[in-house]
Amino acid sequence: MTFMKVCSLSDIPDGGVVGVEAQGKPVALVRKDGEVFALHDVCSHAEVRLSEGEVYDDTLECWLHGSCFDIRSGKPTGPPATRPVPVYRVKLEGDDVLVSLDSADNDENGES
Asked: What is the pLDDT of the chain when averaged over all its residues?
C-alpha cells in the first residue's frame, strides 16, 4: 500500500472538509475529533465536488442536492444519492496527512 502526502493536518479545520488532488484524483478530506477521513471528492448522484459541502456529525452533505455520505464508509445516508463513494485509507505522520488510493476500502463502486 502506497501512501502519499496530500496536505498538512493544519490545512483541515476540525469539523471541516477540504478538497485535494492525489495522483490526479479528487479527494475530500474530513477532519472530525482528531481523525481524518478521505472520500472520493465527487458526489455519486450529481458529479459535483463533495468538498464544497458541509460536515454534520459523521456525514458529509453534498451542496447541490443534499445527498449525504457517511465519512467512514462512503455509503449514502440520505437521498437522492443511492450509490456510495469510494473511501481511502489515511495515515498521519506529524502534521502530514497521507492518503493511499490503492486502499482495500476503495472498490471504485461510486466513482464514474
From this structure: 92
Q: What percent of the chain has pLDDT over 90?
A: 88
pLDDT digits (tens, 9 = 90+) for 50-70: 999 999 999 999 999 999 999
Cβ-based burial of 10 (10 A; exposed 0-12, middle 13-18, buried ≥19): exposed
Question: Which one-letter DSSP state was computed for residue 52?
Answer: G
Residue keyed to cell 455519486: 44
pTM: 0.90
Q: Is 89 helix (H, G, I), strand (E, B) or coil?
A: strand
Backbone dihedral angles phi then psi of residue 12, each to the nearest 5 degrees: -110, 115
The span from the CA of 84 to the CA of 16, in Å, is 20
Q: What is the mean pLDDT of residues 15-32?
A: 97
Q: 44: closest CA among 22, 21, 26?
A: 26
